[in-house]
TrEMBL record, chains A, B:
<comment type="similarity">
    <text>Belongs to the multicopper oxidase family.</text>
</comment>
<dbReference type="Pfam" id="PF07731">
    <property type="entry name" value="Cu-oxidase_2"/>
</dbReference>
<dbReference type="InterPro" id="IPR002355">
    <property type="entry name" value="Cu_oxidase_Cu_BS"/>
</dbReference>
<dbReference type="GO" id="GO:0005507">
    <property type="term" value="F:copper ion binding"/>
</dbReference>
<keyword id="KW-0732">Signal</keyword>
<keyword id="KW-0964">Secreted</keyword>
<comment type="pathway">
    <text>Cofactor degradation; L-ascorbate degradation.</text>
</comment>
<dbReference type="InterPro" id="IPR033138">
    <property type="entry name" value="Cu_oxidase_CS"/>
</dbReference>
<dbReference type="InterPro" id="IPR017760">
    <property type="entry name" value="L-ascorbate_oxidase_pln"/>
</dbReference>
<comment type="function">
    <text>Ascorbate oxidase involved in a redox system involving ascorbic acid (AsA). The oxidation of AsA represses responses to high salinity and oxidative stress conditions such as vegetative growth and seed production reductions. Negative regulator of defense responses toward incompatible Turnip mosaic virus (TuMV strain UK1) by preventing jasmonic acid (JA)- dependent accumulation of ascorbic acid (AsA, AS) and dehydroascobic acid (DHA).</text>
</comment>
<keyword id="KW-0560">Oxidoreductase</keyword>
<keyword id="KW-0677">Repeat</keyword>
<feature type="signal peptide">
    <location>
        <begin position="1"/>
        <end position="21"/>
    </location>
</feature>
<dbReference type="GO" id="GO:0009615">
    <property type="term" value="P:response to virus"/>
</dbReference>
<feature type="domain" description="Plastocyanin-like">
    <location>
        <begin position="423"/>
        <end position="544"/>
    </location>
</feature>
<keyword id="KW-0479">Metal-binding</keyword>
<dbReference type="InterPro" id="IPR034267">
    <property type="entry name" value="CuRO_3_AAO"/>
</dbReference>
Length: 572, 572
């Protein structure tokens, strides 16, 4: 067997300068490149020829200026800065059709925003299925007052990977009848996976695959985590999967969860963590006192019947020799449909001490029923019977300039009373729409996400919902149908965690609360890219009176009716 | 064997109304669709769900108004009306980056133009490799004074087809080192071919493929040409191939060539015709007096070493029964590298009687050397050492508004004297550029296209050059290096054919002449899509003083610096 070459992740030295707002100026170009993400050649979206894109390292308070140039041949592009609240700069949020027009080929858009909050964040494409195509990277915002103590850190950006092009996948999903894209061919850790071999084939757990051998500079060779004994390491983990819900474990080591979505949580220790698309975690890993060898880190699929091999990388103690292999097999990913286990992980997460609790009462309440639907034979997802169809003109521009009022409609605030969430739905009234809810500034909004049965058979899927522009408190999870006036009493109002992404579990509900303190237009959607593409999202407009006064850069609105309006200014 | 189902091409009834300018108003939507163009499923660009796109049937003098809506998810789109001169409407020519900005997803662009000249034309995408993706269709402009007499007609739109997506192909071609896309998997006649079987397998000429059997409504079943005995049929043939030079023959029948690129030619009779990408022909076919059976129509590759099965369809006499098969095998395509034969076909083409001969002298002369080059390791094609890089702002807009003067540069009018066209080139000075030549109105311009050896080995390829906005006279073809002051004397100034596309043969030259009577900006380029993508083109700006007065619709210029200018009008 050829020698396995292990690749080192640079351990970021945790030194943080003072919180003065320095500008971080980046010139980025987006292009397609041929790469071997999982030891099979494919086409990825790269930034400055890098896949995944470059890691942004910032300090809270920094101004980040990214000149993003679209070097694609025929496609538009945007980048969303996932976890950054964009206070005062909603046009920098990077959601195509919501906060800006897609950047056309050859054009440069300036993302200029402040990273006000420390935490583990990431960024990704938010147009078509460009996230699934590989347009993503880590974004670490450090705090000058870091309260965690650790000796080194590693970034683990998790994703899933298909061999079919995203263009063909997108067409498949939007065809009549819909063609499902299936489970991913591979899971990637920092853009690296192995489709046709296993690093653990020498155990029976290898699944019948051959043992991987890597050549120098192999793009699919895993990045190894090189550690010293008796130290504490922070693993910053983010999931930008297209579809997969994941579970991560480090063989022979416990994980202490300390951060979720950029917020400290009351530390708790587990053997493994669940992580849904759109979530980030920091976990602390204490290395053994004995300088022992190598251990597998495994990432496997949960929440859907898996058909994808675990992604593996190695925790590599300093004195392990290159030829050593882990002596224990990779951790087994917990059973995919053990939802009790999934929920009990979620329910362990509470805000760390020092966080202000949420307001005791809400001023408004949405109860959003998630249903799978058929509209004219096309498979769609809908929220309160409206399947989101993002309009040509970005909401932010339409609202700023008072355009398209006829098409910007609100779905109902609650779903119909007699809807049976346990049965396959009958939804003759489901329509496509713009799914816009409008809120005044400074109020407290509760959103209850309500899951239901899918179109066929007895089944309900996990949906990780992500809110742009905000953190929200996760007030609670429940089984079955939400009972207004009753289930509110079960809310945790003492120490609920602040997050920007939360899972909605099968046949259950999830309640969250936020304050409309960020004027702008914010996407709120299932972070599973095909679900969003099939309409599973809504849009929150907040503080419209302040949006009307915003000086939105013209370059954000070079499409649709805002373009026509701006071009005609000089003619009137 | 299952019964073969033959599909009928509707015989268009040749009845033409008077030449009053009626408007033809079309609402078109461009989308990707799954189709089976060659009996293997692939993704095509469809117009109103049709592939190939709908045939436009117009009468000379008609106004055609097409509201083209981009229903793609993330890609821009344009359509070029190949053979239409766009006199007075250069912004309707549909060349992305030259005469307009690409139409963004969700937007509608209005193509509004007059079809001033009768003839066999077509239309196709002109952005990235969208033509190769299947964005094309026929455009027939009839004359109220048709001088040809025939009993029926058929359209044969020829194309080539790859199984790899055009996105991956485009990336391959623009990679370093360049990856060649190879020969097409199939040739298509009206969007139908057979990759994995042959209609002629029952002859030894079937090439070892199995006999095709077609089910009802098979998208890859050939359209059969149903004819009566003792009649004259007009075959309107257009080639929109990405790469392939083609040869078409009808077994047992002669072809009388009567039209080329929308101009009548002095009729001549041949066994088969060569047709290059961008060309159109009409040929008259006289059916036999005996009502005899079926005959193969074959389309094969010439000019490149073929690796693609002939496309076949059937000339089907009225009383042939469904179960009859052609008794003779398909015509054999002439040897691919018999360039003497290719040139002798081209040299048979003269203008029909009644055409005005070209002006006797020219006012300006370009000698354009076609070379294959390396720029920083990227394979490019260059004209007089400039490899075309189409700018973000369309030329038409830049010139109209006096923008980007620094980047709009002219290559040399002639190539360096000591360039050896017979040897692999050494071109250290090749650069990317905008390749813009500017001419005043009302002058006579000669262009000599000069071929040369490619980068490696002893080889020179055929390049079919297409000029937008004009027909030109083909004054002559020559071998080797053009000798200024000498070879002009060999020009045919008596009855050269008028065309918009002409072949440049290996190691030779081709001379053409046109009059700058159409103010606008006109693309002039090799019609092989990968060659154009690698820089093989120039741009002619004509009558700049008149462009400066043009009322170009804003919607043509919603990109680059024209967009910024138009948006800022109101702010100044």
């Amino acid at each position: 067997m050829a020698a396995i070459v292990w690749w080192l992740i640079t351990v970021v030295v945790v030194v943080v300068h003072s919180a003065s707002a320095r500008p971080i100026v980046l010139n980025w170009e987006v292009k397609y490149k041929f790469r071997w993400p999982d030891c099979k050649e494919g086409v990825v979206m790269a930034i400055n020829d890098q896949f995944p894109g470059p890691t942004i390292n910032a300090v809270s308070g920094d101004t980040v200026i990214i000149y993003l140039t679209n070097k694609l041949s025929t496609e538009g592009v945007v980048i969303h800065w996932h976890g950054i609240r964009q206070n005062g700069t909603p046009w920098a949020d990077g959601a195509a059709g919501v906060t800006q027009c897609a950047i056309s080929p050859g054009e440069t858009y300036t993302y200029n925003f402040t990273v006000d909050k420390p935490g583990t964040h990431f960024y990704h494409g938010h147009y078509g299925m460009q996230r699934s195509a590989g347009l993503y990277g880590m974004m670490i915002v450090r705090s000058p007052e870091e309260r965690l103590r650790y000796d080194g850190e590693f970034n683990l950006l998790l994703s899933d990977w298909w061999h079919q092009s995203v263009h063909a996948q997108e067409l498949a999903l939007s065809s009549k009848p819909m063609r499902w894209i299936g489970e991913p061919q591979s899971l990637l850790i920092n853009g690296r996976g192995q489709f046709n071999c296993s690093q653990a084939a020498y155990f029976s757990e290898g699944g019948g695959l051959r043992q991987c051998t890597f050549k120098e500079n192999d793009e699919c060779a895993p990045e190894t985590l090189r550690v010293e004994p008796n130290k504490v390491y922070r693993l910053r983990i983010a999931s930008t999967t297209n579809l997969a819900s994941l579970n991560l474990a480090v063989e022979g080591h416990k994980l202490e969860v300390v951060e979720a979505d950029g917020n400290y949580v009351a530390p708790f220790t587990v053997d493994d963590i669940d992580i849904y698309s759109g979530e980030t975690y920091s976990v602390l890993l204490r290395t053994h006192s004995f300088s022992s060898k190598k251990h597998f880190i495994s990432v496997g699929v949960r929440g859907r019947k898996p058909n994808t091999t675990q992604a593996l990388t190695i925790l590599n103690y300093a004195d392990a020799s290159d030829s050593d292999r882990p002596t224990n097999p990779p951790p087994v990913t917990p059973r995919w449909d053990d939802y009790y286990r999934s929920k009990s992980f979620s329910k362990k997460i509470f805000a760390a001490e020092g966080y202000t609790p949420p307001p005791k009462k809400s001023d408004d309440q949405l109860i959003l029923l998630n249903t799978q639907n058929l509209i004219d034979g096309y498979t769609k997802w809908a929220i309160n019977n409206v399947s989101l169809s993002v309009p040509v003109t970005p909401y932010l521009g339409s609202i700023r300039y008072g355009l398209n009022k006829h098409e910007l409609k609100s779905p109902a605030k609650r779903f119909v009373k007699d809807y049976d969430i346990l049965k396959p739905p009958v939804n003759p009234n489901t329509v496509k729409g713009t799914g816009l809810y409008t809120f005044p500034s400074g109020i407290v909004v509760d959103v209850i996400l309500q899951n239901a049965n899918v179109l066929k058979g007895k089944n309900s899927e996990i949906h990780p919902w992500h809110l742009h522009g905000h953190d929200f408190w996760v007030l609670g999870y429940g089984e079955g149908r939400f009972r207004p006036g009753v289930d509110e009493k079960t809310y945790n109002l003492r120490n609920p965690p602040l997050r920007n992404t939360v899972a909605l579990y099968p046949f259950g509900w999830t309640a969250l609360r936020f304050v409309t303190d960020n004027p702008g237009v914010w996407f709120f959607h299932c972070h599973i890219e095909p679900h969003l593409g099939m309409g599973m999202g809504v849009v929150f407009a907040e503080g419209v009176d302040q949006i009307l006064k915003m000086d939105i850069p013209d370059e954000a609105l070079t499409c649709g009716s805002t373009m026509k309006l701006l071009m005609n200014r000089g003619r009137r």
